[in-house]
Amino acid sequence: MMNMNLTNAVPEDKIHSGHLASQVEHALKLSRDYANGSVHSDGHWCGELRSNVTITAEYIFLRQALGLDMKADSAAYCRHILSEQNEDGSWGLAPEHPGDVSTTTEAYMALKILGLDSSHVVMRRARQFVLKSGGIEKVRVFTRIFLATFGLFPWDGVPQLPVELILLPSICLINIYTFASWARGTIAPLLLICHHQPIFPLPNGKFAKNDYLDELWLDATNKNVSYGLPLLSLLFEGDLPGVAFTCMDKLLYWLNGLRSVPVLRSYARRKCLKWILDRQEVTGDWAGIFPPMHGSVFAFILEGYKINDDPVRLGIQAIENFAWEDERGKRIQACISPVWDTALMSIALSDAMTPDRHVVEQAITWIRNRQLIVPYGDWCVYRPGLPPGGFSFEYKNTWYPDVDDTAAVILAQIKHDVESIGSDSVIAAAMWIVGMQNPDGGWAAFDVENDKLFLNKIPFSDMDSLCDTSCADITGRILEAFGLMMKRAPEKSLASDCFPTLRAACTRGIRYLASTQEPSGAWFGRWGCNYVYGTSHALCGLAYFDDTRVSGLVLRGIQWLGSKQQADGGWGESLLSYRSPSQDWQGSTPSQTAWALMGLLAHLSPKDLAIQRGIQYLVATLQPEKGIGSSWPQSVFTGTGFPNHFYLGYDYYRHYFPMMALGRYLQESSSLTPDLHIVIDEGRFQICSRLIPDATVVNLLKFDFQDISQHATFALPGNPSVCLFQTSLEDSQRKCRQIGCICHDFTFRIDDVLDVQKLESALYRLMDIGNWGQLGARLRLRSDSRLEYHLPASYTKTRPPFIFTTVNYDMNIDEHPIGAKLPKQNYDQSFLSPPGRFFEPLVCHPESPKELADWIYSDRPQLHIHVVSFRDTTLITTSYVHTLFDAISRTSFWKAWGAVLRGHEEEIPPMVPFDQDPLHTLGQDYPKERYHNFGLLLTGFSLVMFGIRYMLELLFTQDVVDHTIRVPGTYVKKMREQARQELAEAAPKGAEIPFVSEGDIVISWWMRTMITALKPSPERPILLMNVFNVWRLFPEWFPPNGAGFIGNAFFYSYTLLSSNKVIHDGSLAYTASKNRQALMEHRTREQVQAMTAIQRKSYKRTAPVIGRTNNFFMACTNQQMSGNFNADFSGAVIKPGVPLAHRAHALGQPSYINDIEHARGYPTRNVVRILGKDAAGDWWLLFKTRSGAWREIHRQLMSIYDGDEPRLEGEVTEVTKS
User: Residues 100, 341, 402, 404: which is the catalytic one?
Assistant: First the structure.
């Protein structure tokens, strides 16, 4: 651990701002001299990128395997490896990091190959550490593979990696592109290596069971070592992904890794080799990082290439180009960072107000020439239409530009020359970044939507590094870049046209930061150590945005940073903080001190004592550097590759980050930049600019936030809530927390011109009636993971009860490129309508919420109403989270709103207040055995197997599409009449004919249509889950007809059939009667009580599932009873858009409904939402299933139309094909 000389730290009472400013100016001059003296002749910087000894060791393994001479560099390699050994004989993941058994084993083997005798004291100490740590049996999977290639570890002890993985298309849930870029490039050559399972010679010879490292085994006579957790342990922990992948791995082992299908294996090997070869740069690199380069050279050799063949020769040369040699020896870098170093050094020089502008100008020119403007690379797979514009980290890496470098380059260009904001380079880079934003609002490094964390359960993955998810540090840098663009843009800038897009992206980014802030106020640092890095970047990004939500985030972040300042004035966080919060702090480091200072300077006055003490620390620790100016010494790593597994030491981190901090301090200290202070007034607060240097400043670093909320994990200080209501039983169940992952944009198409102002005024009036104002309650997540409502003490313009946004188009809707495709009454079914999400840019506001986090981590009200007006049509969209409404209570809200519009407030029922939960005692102390399907419940192992099967089906049906279709009412009536006749004929004489509704018939028709299209096996059991509401069952708990109840009060009924019964042996009458029977059996007080009792006692409080482990699962919700098409906005009609004579629906009633479902993390497929029956009597259904089934579904739909309807058998539109 690094120990700074605390005598360098100046006492608080000795800090003088004037003296400190002059000291900072002198320090900046010396640090600029070092920067200018270390630049390459062409204008760029590239410092050493240090890592642990495994990279060098693995290169030695490669040279040994290929028979390449190592005599010339043997001593230099040994000198480096030995210099990194810990006192206990081990090698760690980073300097001063505890020993690691895998790293030590690889270092030991490399030294032995280089000629160091195993009896040497260095080797004895290393061997003792390995054995004390459990022996070679405990090494990671990568190390196992390297050892297995020399016969030192059994190949049976390595997880299965079939080459056929390369053949899976990108639409599959698991394919080569669902892995992170670094994992993808590494896995591809490993597929070939594991296919061949080679044995290369060691100095003692070539043996399938080589004893070269037997001294590192606890028992060298038994090398049958398993990997991963036992299956029973995974089952006990409820780890379904782990169980599924473990079973799959064992199946592949039993099938000999699919080697028994030689034709397929041969084809897969050719495809894999081509995939690798396509991604080799002209310089020989693969992805610009060592692991893919190392593995790819191995793969080509195993596939028959020779040492002198170009792919191998260039690959080896590319690795050699990563070599770094000095007095400490020779080592191989894991990567090189010229673009990153040059961009950040340019920012530092600009922040330091360098007079040598030509140095930065040359650097910016060097960077710009490396912008990737050709649309290819792996990022195109999931963003095929996105224009290019990114930058990569290395000299040559055309396949993998990264978002973080691209944002840094934008900052470098703008800080050097504000006119560059309108340049092609900056605009292209910014728009590429926008296109790479994840659905959660954050940004990852290389990929988009690369967040399938269950992949880390694959036995091969023991480093938790197979995904590239959003992170706060990158998101913060992007907010800073976009904020700087919009703040400094000159008037009439060419970039101004893209500012609305940037603002919308920033809004989503802020939501992401709100959702990921730790309870302590810090943010996790993915690419730098750790919370100091993440928090600093988040605060720097948030500095450009000044709403109340941001203020709350900033205050907590500032408080956390201030609490971690050390006695010497600096900051220092250990890499061990990734492992355990109790091991988080070490001696102060220049880079981490600079990060903390930049985060604080973005929001506080430079006269703040904590800032001045931090600046003094940097001034005091500056030291002369090799005769060319001065820099800051730093031996520990502060860069992160993979938390807990791989760390990086960027040589220039110790220099350009402190330069940035000192430069920003000096700029903020001048009179040109206003200070910041906190205004606290009547419970509200905001960060404000001030131009009066001596105004009172609140000491934020000692601000007490402990009383912000005793209930919520996240609450906005300064926004008091006088009422805290726990959400209802149904909404607090984990089932409904899953529903919380489902959000809706529910749009009415009204073929009339409505008075938008009257719509808004009526909604405000509704908030004043009875308890209806509680709809403005904010949704919060408590520390015990339950949801609750926070009701504001009062509503204001800045804290409204709902969000109401509008857009007006001076055209008819059919003249709008998207609006023209929106279905309406008598929609021509010969053309499938586009998916509901296609209309999102039209019907939704750019800032409308999309997931639960958008509500619980912000001060957003639960309702967002967006109204789009045309000359002949009005679209009304209600955006909400499912925890607020089920279909019935949603209709209660619309009825109340409509009653205000029509001036009939007496029709508005009292709203059931949120503190009254009608269902809070449901299922308590009720025997779950009374559930009539209790014997069919899937529990324990059977439930696990059902989950595994369902996951495997998702693997091959990832591409899911929804379309809304119209089923003619005349056809539904004919089907129902035919069904009634069949049921009458089948009923015993004198018996009552079973009742079936039109809804039952529609559901049965949907089941038959889907099963025909999806083709499950004939005897496979079909499990239909239907939804029903329970307010009629408990009249003592609910108001009549559920009027005024806002929440969820629905339960499930289950119908078990077989595929044959639905398609062949049965009929619509049979299926409809079975569904009706199941509904009636479940829809009783006793069954609802029993189902709730089961749910209360189940793992994670999930709803019961019945049937068999191979259920074909289908789900339906019939919303006809909710009366969606009866919504009445006639009180706001200005004039008809479609003459009444030409339509069936009344004024102010919808002719079409568009429902966009956002179901992040909650897979929904093979489902239908029956939106209802319109005024013409036609039924509207929203199907959601895999895209490949839509051709057959459309064919069946066409077959039901009469002669007066379009009938185009087999015709499939372009929309269908897409």
Answer: 404
